[in-house]
Design a protein that fits this description.
Elements (H helix, E strand, L loop, with lengths): L2 H16 L23 E5 L14 E3 L6 E2 L36 E5 L12 E4 L6 E2 L36 E5 L12 E4 L6 E2 L35
Antiparallel strand pairs: 1-2, 1-3, 4-5, 4-6, 7-8, 7-9
Length: 236
Amino acid sequence: MHATNLRILTYLSIWILLLPGCGGGGGSSSDSGGEPPVIELKSWYVDLDGDLYGDSSASPILKESKPLGYVADNTDCDDNDSERNPGLTESYDFKDNDCDGEVDEGFSTWYVDTDGDGYGNPSLTVHAIGQPAGYVPDNTDCDDFDTEQNPGLPEVYDLKDNDCDGAVDEGFSPWYIDADGDGYGDPGIVVHETERPEGYVSDNTDCDDGDALNSPGLPEVYDLQDNDCDGAVDEG
């Protein structure tokens, strides 16, 4: 064969071997597609209360897509209560509504002040972050319908517990006028004070406070008067 034709045949054979699927150079058609696709698995957390926040204490399941009843979040502090999750604001209900580890934080107890004296009724309360109108932080008023009774007042004689200490008119005593100065007072004229007023005595047994000759401390004499105040005149 002519040398030129031999070279042409040689080149043609090499070219055929290099074609895909021919000979050993191109590999088989079965592996021409490359690497298999990678499946990305995600963590999903059970959401029992349906508030879109998953149970922080539960183990996740691994799935490519979200299963029914599961969410990607795992910050719910109580997955059995839809009123508790990090997306809520705190309310006064003895729960950790916002899942920050604190219960009813920021709330204070306020007491109604019906009489406006600055002292509240211990029996009527609200819980709020700010002070509501008509409420005070104090709860020591013993009568919230009477401005003359609260712990900030002094006691006066009026048959009330003015200072809210549980006692009525404590420290006051009755004093009776002693118009004739004989040391015996008129039972019909009385004042109540913590100390004896001038012209008054603690005794109230004078039967005639206009006459110093008539009092329980005197002997009876014959003068048509009840000198000893025993109810009898000139007895004996």
